[in-house]
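Give me the fold.
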Amino acid sequence: MIRHRSARRVWSPLGRAILVCPRSLLVTFVLLLISAGLVLVSLSIGRVDVGLWQLLQILSGAGDGDLTERVVLGIRLPRGLTAVCVGAALGVSGAVFQSVSRNALGSPDIIGFTTGAATGAIAQIVFFGQQAAGVMLAAMAGGLLTSVLVYFLAVQGRVVGSYRLVLVGIGIGSILSAVNGLLLVKGSLDNAVTANLWLAGSLSARNWGHLLPVLAGCLVLIPMTLLFARQLHLLEMGDDLAAQLGIRVERIRLLMVIFAVLLAALATGAAGPIAFIALAAPQLVRRLLPAGRLPVMAAAAMGACLLVFADVLTQMLPVEAALPIGRMTGVVGGLYLLWLLSRTRSI
């Protein structure tokens, strides 16, 4: 067994040991504190100004039930919590895909799984309406079907090659992106406009119906991903070595891909396609933690922190129109990708 010196075994549910690194715990805790502070900022800004003391009273249940309390609890709080959950889901999804593909570019938005989830959601919006539950289910179905297609096209000799997975995913994502464009010209004009706005990625008008599915997905899928994180880390050293250590290579790889696809699909269904978060969160966390570990919880915390920060930034920009957060993260993500390509020779 390969174990980092700073890691300690603290829990072994169902016979699966979870190794905890004190530095990882510290980084995760700090990122969660920053995320919580940013959520408080997002709850206080807007057309209705809310002071810190008034905000704390409302959140503690000691509010007066006035307009300010309804705005905070009914509009801003679901939006802030949705940003946290969507960012966490994308962060973990990106960490898994980068580990499976052994490539810094292996994130669901680049490989094409997010595009597949968007295809399902757009089809639902254009042809059947924009009910939150329907959009969420359609996004999950689209993401899963895309992952199955990419996975089996990437199989060669009963083994999924890391670079082949990335290349096939990019190709499928390009096709589905064109399909999304075709879907926008179908159906009624109102639904097409709604689908186009959703495709930009936005946290505006998020309610509890958007939050609860992605929250439930995070509470279930992130701990399950954590349980198999050690096995996935061993796969990074090579399939042959992992098999000699008793790892069922293809089963673990497929299981983790399913977890990551579901997380990305739930995030996409809740807020639309959000770029950059899944790509950058695991990479930034790996620069803060000891080498050789799959940073599941830290990537979730970093993803939440990045998306909430982007949401606060878009709300504080001196422009009259509401800027979709997907466009903001896309611009930042493009610059980050160029920087990553210029610094990394192994991609």
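Residues 1-6 have pLDDT under 50 and may be disordered.
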